[in-house]
Amino acid sequence: MTLNDFSGTPVYAYRGVMLDVARHFFPAAEIFRLLDVMGRLHLNKFHWHFADDQGFRIDLPQFPRLKAIASKRAYTGIGGHAGSIGNDGIPHSGCYSEEDVRAVIAYAAERGIEVIPELDMPGHLSALIAAYPELSCSGEAITVPGEFGILHNTLCIGNDDALHFMEKILHALCDLFTPKTFHLGFDEVKLDHLKTCPKCRAKMAALNYSEIAGLKTHAKNFFRDSLKQRGIDVIIYNDGMDAVDPEVICYYWKGRDGCAETTVKWLNAGQRVIMAPQSHVYMDYPYIWTPLKKTYAFNPVMRGVTKPENIIGVEAPLWTEYVATHEKLAFNVYYRLYALARIGWDGSIHEPYRDFIRALHKHEADYFGETLAISEHVLNPNFFTRHALSRTCMYTDMDAEFKHYRKR
């Protein structure tokens, strides 16, 4: 495959990349570099995950505490994917100005790329709640956490005032981004603590819900309708949905706990879906967990799908809990994007992997602007390497594989 090999009509109109800048902030110059790579690979959707528990990265002057409080944390958790084993004690911060955002949007547009902002809610909101504690059920003051995982700091979705305040932030972001599409998250929401909240219990009674999950649907519909009134399409993570919803696009990432079977059922019933499965295209994972061959062999049409036309595209996300530098980003991302580009362009029609990897190494400087020369034993490690590094990556050091590569 060469720079001229992208011709004809792509299989998928949506060919996306997600960058999480909440866990680790990357300056606009790094985003420009990623957009350059995307443009050369004809990837056309930049999904910008700028808000999460560990940071809110957009400066909205009408909400000054977002920059003053939500964009900063005192430390970052360290350790493996299974959980932090301490923290680095180093303050971390970063915030994009409105000028930065407009520059990214313009730079992307010049390369045929649409920017899709994401404000993940009603979970993953610790940083925002640290700035505006009245948005939570308790109203108690918290600090922006440095720990990773699924935290309990959740928007009080039974509180109309909280919903309307979030709507104001959402609309301010829409005024800045003027997006065609907006991602609302709704993944990994902790609901149990809402059961003891008087406002949530009162709202459940008023809406005649017997289960607390009904409030999540109520909140999803509230924000979905608010964006729809502005003519903006909405994306929701698949574990944030409870039924087919033709008003939103389902973002398939989670296959565990019956989520894969449920998503297949919805897709066959007419639900539009973006395929971004954790098992194949998550770019934060080391190659010992997700070898490049596995990403290259990814077939977006899951078993049981009878309406593949409802798959509108594919996306590869980069979560940055353990990605803090350009070097680690390039190591984890660039080769996988080359594989994703082939999936999005010519579907299941693949050249042999050996031809794919040969072309990648031959043209990587043209596509990536640099030569990484990652060897095959790193990209597709054997059993002994996987066994030696898997527990290290899981429990103590997610950078172990990268450190090993850098010593070559």
Protein model, in words:
The chain is of the alpha/beta class and 408 residues long. It has 15 helices and 14 strands. The strands form four sheets. An eight-stranded parallel β-barrel has the order 1-2-9-10-11-12-13-14, surrounded by five helices. The chain has a two-stranded antiparallel ribbon with strand order 3-4. It has a two-stranded antiparallel sheet with strand order 5-8. A hairpin with a 2-residue loop joins β3 (51-52) and β4.
Largest sheet: 8 strands, parallel, barrel
- Helix percent reads 25-40%
How much of the sequence is in beta strands? 15-25%
Distance between the termini: 27 Å
Number of strands: 14
Average of the residue pLDDT scores: 94
Distinct helical segment count: 15
Main attributes of the structure:
alpha/beta; 15 helices; globular
Write the layout of secondary structure elements.
Blueprint: E1 14-20, H1 28-40, E2 45-49, E3 51-52, E4 55-56, H2 65-70, E5 72-73, E6 77-80, E7 83-87, E8 92-93, H3 98-110, E9 114-121, H4 126-131, H5 160-177, E10 181-185, H6 198-207, H7 213-228, E11 233-237, E12 248-252, H8 259-268, E13 273-275, H9 278-281, H10 292-296, E14 311-318, H11 326-346, H12 353-368, H13 376-379, H14 383-395, H15 400-406
Parallel strand pairs: 1-2, 1-14, 2-9, 9-10, 10-11, 11-12, 12-13, 13-14
Antiparallel strand pairs: 3-4, 5-8, 6-7
Helix pairs in contact: 1-3, 11-12
